[in-house]
């Protein structure tokens, strides 16, 4: 049976007819001169603007990118195979807009905001231009709240704050996407809305990510922007900006949002392709001259904004709330080369990076974060007291361990303090390991960190550490649920709390659960 | 490079020369003839013929043009032959005409209407367009019943579409919610 959609209710149709304006439309027209690989050259369009949407025959749109003396170079957003020379195109006088709003949560959309998940149309009345200027300095506020990734290694050593831009960089197959997905999963209770922008990835990978998020009940607070490798370069170029606008909707309403660009290397490739076809002069690695601006203007939009900004944007409807958009861009390196063009650019734009190494990954250290060169420039200020106090020694003992690691094979000739440091470092490396799709809440993470930092693991065999941690978490969850809840709610730390935590770990070490094996 | 871009300096030079010597009409006619010849399929084959020298092509050209009486225009064609730009002639003519109408403060406007316009309607339309475009307007009227009603006005790039068909299309998009 043919079905009526919700847009076909008589009242809705009546209202629309009332709103319909019967004025003759006056627009500028042009003629297609050539179509090549998604790039259309147009003659005419005398008053077209840079970045304006152009209407092609067949309800298709394009983006004017090159304004030359006699022609306009535009990219077609969608299929271009059937466009032919001589066809008429028209100016629209508008910048490209995408739908935004709560209705997009839980959905998979393309770079234009059209649903691609077969869950029906998206009912939202809000739209937003894809290209926007980032909030100015006056409107900003410093980063002071954390985004918990739920990964011990990251939350303790490279904390990410709300409104920060933290790059995830590494070779292929080092677990970059895994970190991003775990972070999204960990936002189930935090209220942070997530946007995952997949650029130039395999459609099967995107499907797998969607399924995983659904499985862990994390799709309901997430928007997935799908610009897979099968789509034209123009869509891949546009996707991060569209995703950013969707995230900004939440930021501008006093909420917190997180956006993941997976990954910007492929975004740069798509833009390089468009630029070369538009015959813009190539520069280093054949990228166009404005490749830095391409990423800097995108990442500048991730920000923490003050209450007065939100009040201004919402015209006084929302008061006294700050908003943030945290960005986790991902960049793929080739054979660990961070001095390539795109990695250096994005490293210099972001507020820190999480560096993932193939060697670590293969030696079983996952997440494969290299603690020496991973940094977070602003996240420290956003760390909760609980994690901050307990993770102070992590970085140091790992650094000392790395330095002494070479001597480890001569262990019999080493003095006691060196042995102790090696012992501690080895356990620290072990406790930092974490399985995929298993982000930890703050309370449990605090117990793991306390056990490692205060020496409770020193007498535990390294191979037993994963079991120790698992049993400890189970024990705390079962016997001290109230205490754990208060830790998770308050994130506070003082001598009383420390004493209580120590007591719990000590008692646990005496229980049959742990001793049995 | 686009032909329009190649044609621009030629069109500008031809126009300025003709204006200074007060030969605008003659040059316009001569360029029209030349551009018609240049757009001919057989001639175009000739332009790109590998074994023909530019002078030979020029000879053929002048032959077809029945020996242009204006020696200056022949010089102009010689220039085109020298730089092998005969294929840009139609664009040169268009550029020349654009400059010409700009000079006369005149715009040719194409009007497509669903039915034949009466003289008074034409006069009214001309007046309205002159006011809007701030140019003298010459109408070029056509009838096309498929636009259902109203009219479509084209002045260069600018298109004012007040046809019934366009409004129906817009209404469809509006009701579908796919309108911009």
Radius of gyration of chain A: 26 Å
Assembly status: heterodimer
Number of helices of chain B: 8
Rounded average pLDDT of chain A: 92
Tally of separate helices of chain A: 17
* Interface with most residues: A-B, 29 and 24 residues
Number of strands of chain B: 4
Low-confidence runs of chain A (pLDDT<50, min 5 residues)? none
What characterizes the major β-sheet of chain A? 9 strands, mixed
Characterize this entry briefly.
Chain A is built from 17 helices and 19 strands. With 517 residues, chain A is an alpha/beta fold.
Give an overview in words.
The complex is a heterodimer of chains A (517) and B (180). Chain A has 17 helices and 19 strands. Chain A has 517 residues and is of the alpha/beta class. In chain A, the strands form four sheets. In chain A, strands 8, 12, 13, 14, 15, 16, 17, 18 and 19 form a nine-stranded mixed β-sheet that branches. A six-stranded antiparallel barrel of chain A has the order 1-2-5-4-3-6. Chain A is elongated, with a radius of gyration of 26 Å. Chain B has 180 residues and is an alpha+beta fold. Chain B is built from eight helices and four strands. A four-stranded mixed β-sheet of chain B has the order 2-1-3-4. In chain B, helix 1 packs across helix 6 (89-104) and helix 2 packs antiparallel against helix 6. Classes of the chains: A alpha/beta (517), B alpha+beta (180). The interface between A and B is medium-sized, with 29 and 24 residues.
């Amino acid at each position: 049976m043919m079905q009526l959609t919700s847009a076909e209710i008589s009242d809705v149709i009546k209202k629309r007819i009332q709103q319909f304006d019967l004025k003759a439309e006056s627009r500028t027209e042009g003629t297609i001169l050539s179509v090549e690989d998604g790039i259309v050259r147009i003659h005419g369009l005398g008053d077209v603007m840079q970045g304006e949407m152009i209407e092609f025959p067949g309800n298709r749109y394009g983006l004017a990118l090159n304004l030359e003396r006699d022609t306009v170079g535009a990219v077609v957003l969608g299929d271009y195979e059937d466009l032919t020379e001589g066809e008429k195109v028209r100016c629209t006088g508008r910048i490209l807009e995408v739908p935004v709003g709560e209705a997009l949560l839980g959905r998979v959309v393309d770079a234009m905001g059209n649903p691609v998940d077969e869950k029906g149309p998206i009912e939202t009345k809000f739209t937003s231009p894809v290209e926007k200027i980032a909030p100015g300095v006056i409107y900003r506020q410093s980063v002071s709240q954390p985004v918990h990734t739920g990964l011990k290694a990251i939350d303790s050593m490279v904390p990410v704050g709300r409104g920060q831009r933290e790059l995830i960089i590494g070779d292929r197959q080092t677990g970059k996407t895994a970190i991003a997905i775990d972070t999204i999963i960990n936002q189930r209770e935090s209220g942070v809305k997530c946007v995952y922008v997949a650029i130039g990835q395999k459609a099967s990978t995107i499907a797998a990510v969607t399924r995983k998020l659904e499985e862990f009940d994390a799709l309901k607070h997430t928007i997935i922007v799908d610009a897979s490798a099968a789509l034209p370069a123009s869509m891949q170029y546009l996707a991060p900006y569209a995703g950013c606008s969707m995230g900004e909707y939440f930021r501008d309403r006093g909420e917190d949002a997180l956006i993941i660009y997976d990954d910007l290397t492929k975004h740069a490739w798509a833009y390089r392709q468009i630029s070369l076809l538009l015959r813009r002069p190539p520069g280093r690695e054949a990228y166009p001259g404005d490749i830095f601006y391409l990423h800097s203007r995108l990442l500048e939009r991730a920000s923490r904004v003050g209450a007065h900004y939100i009040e201004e944007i919402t015209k006084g409807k929302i008061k006294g709330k700050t908003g943030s958009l945290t960005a986790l861009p991902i960049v793929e390196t080739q054979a660990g080369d961070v001095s390539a063009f795109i990695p250096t650019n994005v490293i210099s734009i972001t507020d820190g990076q999480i560096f993932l190494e193939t060697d670590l990954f293969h030696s079983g250290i996952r997440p494969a974060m290299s603690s020496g060169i991973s940094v977070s420039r602003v996240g420290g200020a956003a760390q909760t007291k609980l994690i901050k106090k307990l993770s102070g020694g992590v970085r140091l003992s790992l650094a000392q361990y790395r330095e002494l690691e070479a001597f480890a094979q001569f262990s019999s000739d080493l003095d006691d303090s060196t042995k102790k440091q090696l012992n501690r470092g080895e356990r620290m490396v072990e406790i930092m390991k974490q399985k995929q799709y298993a982000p930890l809440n703050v309370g449990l993470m605090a117990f793991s960190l306390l056990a490692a930092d205060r020496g409770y693991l020193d007498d535990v065999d390294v191979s037993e550490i994963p079991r120790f941690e698992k049993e400890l978490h189970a024990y705390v969850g079962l016997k001290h649920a109230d205490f754990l809840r208060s830790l998770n709610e308050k994130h506070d730390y003082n001598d009383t709390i420390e004493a209580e935590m120590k007591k719990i770990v000590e008692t646990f070490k005496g229980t049959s659960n742990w001793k049995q094996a | 490079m686009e032909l329009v871009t190649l044609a621009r300096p030629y069109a500008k030079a031809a126009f300025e020369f003709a204006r200074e010597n007060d030969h605008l009409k003659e040059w316009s006619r001569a360029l029209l003839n030349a551009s018609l010849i240049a757009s001919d399929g057989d001639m175009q084959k000739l332009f790109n013929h590998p074994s023909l020298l530019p002078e030979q092509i020029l000879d053929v050209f002048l032959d077809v043009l029945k020996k242009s009486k204006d020696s200056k225009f022949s010089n102009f064609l010689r220039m085109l032959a020298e730089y092998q730009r005969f294929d840009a002639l139609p664009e040169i003519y268009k550029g020349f005409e654009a400059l010409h109408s700009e000079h006369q403060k005149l715009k040719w406007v194409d009007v497509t209407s669903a039915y034949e316009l009466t003289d008074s309607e034409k006069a009214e339309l001309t007046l309205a367009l002159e006011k809007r475009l701030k140019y003298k307007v010459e109408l070029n009227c056509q009838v096309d019943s498929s636009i259902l009603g109203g009219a479509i006005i084209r002045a260069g790039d600018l298109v004012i579409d007040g046809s019934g068909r366009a409004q129906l299309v817009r209404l469809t998009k509006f009701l579908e919610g796919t309108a911009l």
